[in-house]
Amino acid sequence: MAQGKPAHYWRQLRAALTAGQWDARFPAKDVHGRAVSWSDLLRKFNKHCPGHQDVAELASQTHALSLLLSANTADLDACDAGAQGALLLGEECMLAEERVEEGLTGYNTLKQLDASASDSVKAALAYYAYALRRPSECLEHLAQVKDLSDAQGPVFSSPTTSSAPATLRVPGTSSNASLSSSWTGSFVSAQSSSSVANIDEGRTWSVVEQIRSVCLKGMCYETMNASDIQRAFTTYTSAIALIASVVAEIPAHIPTAATGAPTSPDNTSFTRYRELWRWVERVLRRGVILGARICDVSRTDGQNGAFWTLLQQYHTCSAHWPPSFRPEQRSTVAVLHLRALIFKARSSPPPKPGADRPHRWISAARSVVQEYRAILSVSTSFPKAGERNVKVEDLVDLSVAAWEADGAVGEYAGWVIDVLWWATRLTFNSFKIFRHMSRLFYVSGDPELAKRTLRLYVQIVSKAREASLAEEESATPEATGAFGAGKDIDTDENWVQTLVQGSRMLSRLALADEDPGKAVEEAKEAGEMIEKAKTRLNASDAALVASVQIAEAIWHIAMAYTEQDVLTRTARFEQSLSLLHKSLETNPTPSTHHHLALAYLRPGASQDIQTAIVHARAAVEGDHSEPRHWHLLGLLLTATGDWRAAKEVLELGASVSEADLVDDEPEVPEGTAGNDDVPEGVRVHDYGTAPNGVNGDASVTSADSEADRVSSGTVETAVLDKEATELPPSSLLLQPLGDRPSPNRQEAFEHALQLRMTQLTLTEFVEGPEGTGDKWVEVFQWFSERREVGVEDRRMSIDSRRASQELKPASMTSSVEKRLTSSPNPAIRSSALFPPVEEQPEPGPTPSLDVRIPITVTPASPMAQSPAFSQDQLSRPSLNGTLREDGAGEKRLSVDDGHGNRGKGKKVREVFISGVHKGRARVTTISKKIGHNVGRHHHGAHLKRSTSAPAADFRALLGQTPYQASSIHLRQHLSIYTSQQDLSLLEAPPPPPPPPPPSTGPTIARHNARLAKDRRLLSNLWLMSSATFRRLGKIEQARGAIQEAEVRDEANPAVWVQLGLYYLALDEDRKALEAFQKALFIAPNDVSATIHLCRVYLSAIQDGSKSRLRVGLEPSDRDNVDLAVGLLSALTKGAGWDVPEAWYFLAKMYGLQGRKDRERECLCFALTLSENRPLRDPGIAVGWCL
């Protein structure tokens, strides 16, 4: 027991000192496990460890000084940063004036010890000297310590002579053992080479003394010469290696020797090594603050690299600390860390497209943000009335700035949105949070939440401004601001920018919304945002004024297309053009040029294609990284017939859409126009750096923004100014909002796909449909590489092919396999997203159009099998239905006739007439061509010529209102791969499994919405290829492409439009009519379906007139003419006002009514509309606004 007690109290003293429990009543335990106080611990130590009184005295004075230093602070950890803030050293580790006398007593007591005996005494004297505000004496004491440079790493055993008076024997060692080195002092076993984590051997306290001495030395340099901080920074960095060893050896939890598990919740690395972590935090923090003033964060060499090491070490050590440990100081370092990461990201060149970034800086930034969130959750609380949680709002700004520095990609905004939701729990109606929320929700694909948060922002700021104005008028000067009025008022610049962005967002949503009522409401709300922005608009800020003008011009465009008012449409277009010119004069931007080009392209009195081309070229030169500028220029060149230039421009746009441009010149793909071969009038040059801002054109800038401080290595980038006394607001790190939000990846993909669809349209127009075969394969391959849509459809298409091949004769199967294996590209051959080689257009005889292809069509109305045809029309050969009988003897009805269905057909007729009277013929985009089989549909790649290459009909990429349409059952009975065999031999595949229950999570909802858009895009691609096959005479392949389109998107009305055109190619007008009616039941405002429906009516009437060989209309024909006139009149007054097909067929119907004057007027207007128009409708291909 004699040897046990000394060893026990050595361990208890070392543990108490390392834990830093200076104010604990019972910091240790005796040999019986009973708690003992500090005085009893020192008394028992002296009793059982004779000859080590200096060790006890040294521990006693260290304990006394720590208590004196904590007397004027909140706690022992010194969590309060002091009046001067956390950036300045201030009076940290210095005694208050009233405590100096007590400190002198302990200082003199230590001096009486044999200072030459132990470096621990010298380190303690230095500690006292600094606390007594004597930095010179502190440095003198530290200079006497041997081998101070050894503090850079752990010190191991170094034998000394046994006669040295400072060597105090440790129980359990021989009498000749000595201290391990000059830095082990009186607390380390002489023969110990244990880990830093081993408190019992005294190694930990030795490290504490080393780190404390380094920190004191650095603080002395700061205090004595505040202007020269380089020396102090170098001193702080000398502890990096030692701290690295500490972090590597100390675990987060200290297991017991018996069980290997923590004994209590407090048995953590922080609790047992608290004094060590106090000095580690202090030395790292002071080094980080000084490094933020003098280091260039854009570099990693020399001391700049040491600064980044300090930041990383601080973040690593913080994993051991609870959030309540020094929250003020840790918040400061977290802000500096995030600012350094943001500055470094902005000063670095952007990565090459497709380059690997396995250790992206944003991961470190997100980790720091998570740590900062935990600290603020503990150290801040929900604000009281009239107060704001400034720190939480500042973290929100920091998070948004980090997201912007990472590219402002909408798909990567989820973690910032999480921070915003968390911030709402610690703030009360913060306008700053709602401002960021509105923007991030929109770019991440949640427009509904974006609108809601925008309205909250407007309401909060408006009410706060009203309260502030009322208080200014009524309150006395002494009471101004007493109730917090005015604290929730955003700046005028932010107010205008946010409302302009909100108005642009609402206008875009209105143009894309398929619900007419909702679209009008959104457009009207966009106008309200503009009016509210004008109330606080600074007329001297040209950039802001121009942004308001262009937003108002776009609002007029949105109102013109959503109101569908023939009386106001022209006036709104004129007002929009006038505002665009004013915006161009105030502050010209590429976006303004782009919208002016669209305005001069739009049909009307102001149409001027050459002027539109001039503005489109200016837009390309101003912002070469926007593919829609290139796309619009290419469309305009097709309107003038310059096919070669249009092709080159579209190829350049396609290369731009593949990846964001970097600082160097983009690599021009082989076969495209380079600098020496560019379209006439388009200048291609080195633009150097990318445009400022993260949201398109940087037309709105902030005068005091810190973003302009960061350059590409030409100027040193420091996180803080050398004279800064407080952290600058993080709002200064935010990039200018710019003209518009940068497109997310989904939108960028849609823009790129639309451009490729235009390229296919141009190729078919120039080379004929025969020239698009290989290009179709390339587009489907391109789609499959970027989207994984279609994997779930393998059961419907690929499996059905396998089943069908089992039923094929051996000769047919072998011929198919031969064609598949002959493909030069096996990747293309195996993809399920594009047609196999066997279905590409092939030279050879065209199949006869008289072949009847049995596709079962469920009629448009759930109650009606027959459209609105008279009995006489039903008896005509061209409209006769047929009854087919399958193998089981069941009759399958393609089209029913007879008196039994006339009442049901009449209901369909009434629905159409009702729609005409209500004037609800509306769509977002329309075709621009007149010709055979050409109508304006939302998905169209429309061709100019009407003989060899009539236009395909496609629908623009817009979400559809859910509608459970009757399936055409193509995937159950047909396959694109079985078009050469008898369909009666096939068996229907088993029904698909029930879909999983829908998830209510916002992330899942956004993902599902993206998948729905991708499926609609892929469906449209199949339909576009179907139109190409149809024009080639490949009817079998056209049918198969329609099947694939229906598999991808059953609710796509364009499927039924293409099916109707397919039947028209087979002269089955009755089935075509049913298909067009089905399309109108899915989308009542579909322009293309309406036009083709009326076209079928016209064809039937003309065929009937020829067969009767007499002039005049039958009563049933007259009814159909009246119905068609009603449908087309409503269409031309509303959504189809600029569709020449609608006016052409309306003229034909007027002619059948005998209204020759109206017929002539409509024909003239149709001819006017058909002139000077591009191959595709710009509203579909590019959109009417950016």
Helices and strands in order, then pairings?
Layout: H1 4-19, E1 28-29, E2 35-36, H2 38-48, H3 53-69, H4 100-111, H5 119-131, H6 135-143, H7 203-224, H8 230-237, H9 240-249, H10 269-272, H11 274-294, H12 302-317, H13 327-347, H14 361-379, H15 390-405, H16 414-424, H17 431-443, H18 447-474, H19 492-512, H20 516-534, H21 542-563, H22 569-586, H23 590-601, H24 609-622, H25 627-639, H26 643-658, H27 745-767, H28 773-786, H29 794-807, H30 810-821, H31 826-830, H32 871-874, E3 883-885, E4 891-893, H33 902-918, H34 970-973, H35 1002-1032, H36 1035-1048, H37 1053-1065, H38 1069-1082, H39 1087-1108, H40 1115-1133, H41 1140-1153, H42 1156-1170, H43 1178-1181
Antiparallel strand pairs: 1-2, 3-4
In short:
The protein has 1186 residues and is mainly α. Helix 35 (1002-1032) runs parallel beside helix 37.
Shape: elongated
Please give the largest β-sheet: 2 strands, antiparallel
Number of helices: 43
Report strand order across the widest sheet.
1-2
Distance between the amino and carboxyl termini: 86 Å
Structure class:
mainly alpha
Strand content: under 5%
Q: What would you report as the Rg, rounded to the nearest angstrom?
A: 40 Å
- Please count the beta strands (DSSP E, at least 2 residues each): 4
Give the helix proportion (percent range).
40-55%
Mean pLDDT: 74
Give the low-confidence spans.
Answer: 148-186, 188-193, 256-263, 352-359, 660-692, 699-704, 709-714, 790-909, 915-989, 991-1000
